[in-house]
Amino acid sequence: MIHGEFQSSTGKGNTLLPVFEAYISIRALGVDKERVPVVMDTGSDRTTITASFAYRVMHIDPAILPVTERQFGIRGFIEVHVVKALIEFPDTDHGHVGYERDIAIEIPQGDSYKTGFTAPLLGKDIMLEWRIVFDATHKPDGLLTAEPFNYTSTRS
Predict the structure, then answer these.
(1) Is residue 109 helix, strand or coil?
(2) How far is CA 3 from the centre of its chain?
(3) Where are the domains of the chain?
(4) pLDDT of 18-58, one tens digit each?
(5) Is CATH 2.40.40.20 correct for 20-128?
(6) In contact, 48 and 121? CB cutoff 8 Å
(7) Whole-prediction pTM value?
(8) Which residues contact 112 (CB under 8 A, 6 or more apart)?
């Protein structure tokens, strides 16, 4: 079982966001098991690393990555660099479960990515492999769990 939590957003309304802890490895960019909090985004087809997270946490300058695709999101079309990654989640039943997927890294427009911060988005490319229990009425902080039914077992 993969356990998540609800975390407060920093945006308007201080809403609670469903977040899972992941470890992402991107061999082509020299990233090895970077701890990444990913926000569930049921509207996102693909797991996406935001430009600000790539720059500030993963030490990747997304401005120098070549654009390989355009994808549509809440802010309209964005340019992204698509790269193969291994995304692993701590699992109480299996140690870690992993998914090798093509993920997107947002290519920034301007310099705001160097000072802002937006968490990466967990897309349907992985969520459709899970049975998710999402219960905000469970007190005090809600209940968020995922039971993977299609995965590769990995060890840390």
Answers:
(1) coil
(2) 15
(3) 20-128
(4) 999 999 999 999 999 999 999 999 889 999 999 999 999 99
(5) no
(6) yes
(7) 0.86
(8) 52
